[in-house]
């Protein structure tokens, strides 16, 4: 089953051996995935988006606080 994972600001795709072989045989073409994976992939994407945005919001907040600190000096 295909899976998406977000780690350290990067998005990773995990494929089964059969999916990799099918992709290799059809380089440059869309890879058909079992529709039964849709729920899991949707959950994976949602989790990745949440993790990414939480990191972005932390960086934005830190940047904002640093600017305020500099302005006070």
Largest sheet: 2 strands, antiparallel
C-alpha Rg (nearest Å):
19 Å
Low-confidence stretches: none
Strand content: 5-15%
**What integer is the average pLDDT?**
90
Helix tally equals 2
Strand order of the largest sheet: 1-2
Sum up the overall morphology in one term.
elongated
The number of E-state strands comes to: 2
* N-C termini distance: 55 Å
The H-and-E topology, N to C, reads as EEHH
Q: Please state the structural category.
A: alpha+beta
Counting structural domains, the number is 1
Roughly what percent helix?
A: 55-70%
Mind explaining what this structure looks like?
The protein has 73 residues and is an alpha+beta fold. It has one domain (3-72). It has helices at 17-25, 38-72; strands at residues 3-7, 10-14. Strands 1-2 form a two-stranded antiparallel sheet.
Give a short overview.
The protein has 73 residues and is an alpha+beta fold.
